[in-house]
Amino acid sequence: xxxxxxxxxxxxxxxxxxxxxPVSGATALVDxxxxxxxxxxxxxxxxxLSHVLLTHHHWDHIDGLGDILAAHPARVIGATADAHRLxxxxxxxxxxxxxxxxGETVSVLDVSGHTVGHIAFHFPDxxxxxxxxxxxxxxxxxxxEGTPAQMFDSLSKLAALPDETTVCSGHEYTASxxxxxxxxxxxxxxxxxxxxxxxxxxxxxxxxxxxxxGLEKLTNPFLRSTDPALQQxxxxxxxxxxxxxxxxxxRKDNF
Length: 255
Known about the structure:
Elements: E1 4-10, E2 14-20, E3 27-30, H1 35-45, E4 51-53, H2 59-62, H3 65-71, E5 75-79, E6 91-93, E7 98-101, E8 104-110, E9 119-123, E10 128-132, E11 135-136, E12 139-140, H4 148-159, E13 166-169, H5 174-183, H6 189-203, E14 211-212, H7 213-219, H8 228-234, H9 241-253
Helix pairs in contact: 5-6
């Protein structure tokens, strides 16, 4: 059975996530930006952590871990390639490895680009992927360490998941990402509608994360590198998808 997912706003624009199995009581936390909101949510729901999953080493994804573990000792899982920069891991994994969470086999994807060693966690039965700062709603993470080719490869892996997959990403950046998408000028109808929907949601104070992978593939400019309309708007008709992605990322960096 699919597990319950709870989205927790943290800091100014971060998200952490709880994944809960009501049968066994097992509860996993994905990323730990700050302890307060996470501990409050666990207390309100009377849940106890069994797992902590870390996507990458940046402070705004790990700094709350010490206080959280003090209250909820749990098994900490992260990337082998990032282990030297993460808090102490109980389990270090590489792409292709899996682990069990409450009867569900969770797979690990290397989604390097934002950082080298960044991973995502795919829960196929729950139909969810936790992407941290790789694939985001209408965007992708800035390339602090990796190359455009690495990030393109990472996003291609994520785009290959089923369209109904829920994308649980790490930040509320959707409105600014929509403004950037509009600046590209291809006027795609799906993009225009998503911009309008996002504007309405944010005006009402609603979060835009999580999102659906099928919608990301239709509207996210970082997943539309093969779209002729976007290529034409960029003046890159017939360019390779990696070159189109590279140009979009360059423009976003300077937006």
